[in-house]
Amino acid sequence: MASIALMFGGAIINATAFTGGNYLARCLSGDTSKVALGEKTQHNKALEAYQATMAKYTHDCTMLLDWIETNREIKEQAKQDFTNTDYVFKVYNQAHPDKQITIKEPRFADFYQPSEQQKQVKLLFWGSSAFALGYAAFCFL
pTM for this structure? Predict the structure, then answer.
């Protein structure tokens, strides 16, 4: 029964599309009436404006993608330069053990050490959170 309804629904949609297509073709075909000519002129102007806007949009998208790719390449090159610099320092230190060059990456732990009380509070928080999670899992699962 559903297949028959789908068949009739498809037939109605096809008939509507065919009728609408014929109407549009008649309006845009070159009919000499003023209404059809005005409709055709309006359609052509809208199409030209759309094409110009679409061309600008495509150009802008292409320029944006080119800019993104160029910046990605620059960042990759900078990353490679830093890697190469680290390797050069390592090789130099191996070749000249008496003249060591050390460049150490700064870490937050070099500047701040938490107090014992902060460490205990942190452990208490994580322990109680783990206990609460385990209890919730036990009760609800």
Answer: 0.38
